[in-house]
Amino acid sequence: MPEKRIYGYFIVPYLLFAVASATVVQMRVVKETANYGYFGNGIGDPENSNQLIPTVSPANFSGPELLHRLVGKCYNLTQDRYRYSFCPFQNFTQYEISPRWNAYQGILGIWSHWDIQNNTFAAMILKNGDHCGDIDRSIKITLKCGPNETLLNVTEPSRCEYSAQFSTRYVCHNDALLVYPRLNLELQVEWDHLHTDFHYGDITEKGYLAGLQKIFQKAGLAETSTPKPIETSTATTTLRNGGIFSDLQTCNKEYKNLQNEISKLNMELEAMKLMIDLSKIQNRTHKQQRLSSHE
Question: What pLDDT is stored for residue 228 in this prediction?
Answer without folding.
Answer: 59
